[in-house]
Design goal:
Blueprint: E1 7-12, H1 41-47, E2 58-63, H2 67-73, E3 82-85, H3 91-105, E4 110-115, H4 123-139, E5 143-148, E6 159-165, E7 178-184, H5 189-198, E8 201-211, H6 212-222, H7 224-235, H8 239-246, H9 255-260, E9 266-270, H10 281-285, E10 289-291, E11 295-297, E12 301-304, E13 310-313, E14 320-323, E15 328-332, E16 337-341, H11 348-352
Parallel strand pairs: 1-2, 1-4, 2-3, 5-9, 11-13, 12-14, 13-15
Antiparallel strand pairs: 4-8, 5-8, 6-7, 6-8, 7-9, 10-11, 15-16
Length: about 350
């Protein structure tokens, strides 16, 4: 793999996390919360890189609303490595900003792009996969993706269809890469079942690894607006001024649409580590304590004739009691109380659109 000096990580930490209201808010979304008593997801993401990427080479990209909270958490990184986007422009402009910042520092860099809101507990297995991904990116003129082996026919994830094993001269690694045939968007349940049965699909985890020359070349071929922005950052004498002037003008688009689905060569490495995108309260539930009849709670709970409920109490010193209720999500914070049918968990995002601004 590339030396530690040339390995970089760009951590994307600007999501809204509305599915976890009322615990998550615009200024402190999911990745900035300690949901499991193990530190925030952002803190865990940074700590997983210890020994793999030097702290000076880890950049965190957030937004102005969340910048203060990110700085409170990421004190182990240089202050200059935390960058706030001046406008919301989706993942492709965000990744291009990271590419430009890293290219301005080190044209020989091999970089990882990592979400900040995923739960991964097996750090040795994670580092083994990412080390092989860095080595693959350094040897191959292609863009590397990390795929998660599907455990069920989930219609909520994007999928990556793999082709033949990749042939890369000089590469020896335990986690061998595969050629990617194509990216598949979120399928319906029937198509997801077909993907699962075929055995040739992985979930798209949103983790990417590439050498700078490879990704800059692909941007020039398929996303010239972003390539021009990267070039401007590399040549800038005043980086903050260049970002402030040019970033808000970029077209909002995801990195999958802008680049990954168009690139000439994409490689896929299947993860051997545990992975959970903890996308809703239903995902959180399995990490909470079991009490009574299939009730899950983060604090002591009093319950009678109640089952299959999810209870998260952020008001320490208070008690929640359930009587004769089933299939609820109950979340209590200092200023709000959510009571929802657990089968409507995906609609919490829509509910937040009806709330007064001071509760967002």
């Amino acid at each position: 793999m590339p030396s530690l000096d040339h390995a970089y990580a760009l951590i994307l930490a600007g999501g809204s996390g509305t599915r976890f209201w009322p615990l998550s808010r615009n200024a402190r979304p999911k990745q900035l919360l300690d949901l499991f008593g193990e530190g925030t997801l952002l803190e865990q993401t940074i700590n997983r890189l210890a020994g793999l990427v030097a702290p000076d080479n880890i950049l965190v990209l957030t937004n102005t609303l969340q910048e203060a909270a990110v700085r409170e958490i990421a004190t182990m990184l240089p202050a200059a490595n935390i960058v706030a986007e001046p406008a919301k422009r989706d993942t492709a402009p965000a990744v291009a900003l990271g590419i430009g910042l890293i290219a301005a520092r080190d044209p020989e860099a091999v970089m990882m792009v990592l979400p900040s809101d995923q739960l991964i507990r097996n750090t040795p297995a994670y580092q083994a996969v990412m080390r092989d991904a860095l080595a693959t990116a350094a040897h191959a003129d292609g863009l590397v993706t990390i795929g998660i082996r599907p455990t069920w026919a989930c219609p909520a994830y994007g999928y990556i269809e793999r082709g033949a094993p990749a042939e890369i001269p000089g590469l020896a690694c335990a986690h061998a890469p595969w050629e990617v045939k194509r990216f598949r968007e979120k399928p319906d349940a029937e198509l997801a079942a077909q993907f699962l049965a075929s055995g040739s699909f992985t979930w798209n985890a949103g983790m990417f690894v590439w050498a700078l020359p490879a990704v800059i070349g692909q941007l020039a071929a398929h996303a010239p607006e972003l390539a021009a922005f990267v070039a401007a950052l590399r040549a800038a004498t005043d980086l903050p001024a260049t970002i402030a002037a040019q970033f808000p003008k970029l077209t909002p688009i995801s990195i999958d649409y802008a680049l990954m689905e168009k690139a000439e060569r994409v490689l896929n490495i299947e993860a051997s580590f545990d992975w959970d995108d903890v996308g809703s309260w239903l995902s959180i539930a399995k990490y909470l304590d079991l009490t009574g009849v299939e009730n899950r709670a983060n604090q002591p709970l009093t319950q009678l004739d109640s089952c299959n409920n999810i209870v998260f109490n952020a008001r320490h010193g208070t008690r929640i009691a359930l009587l004769g209720v089933d299939d609820l999500i109950v979340v209590q914070t200092a200023d709000a109380l959510l009571i929802a049918n657990r089968h409507e968990a995906d609609s919490i995002k829509q509910l937040t659109e009806l709330l007064p601004p001071e509760l967002l």
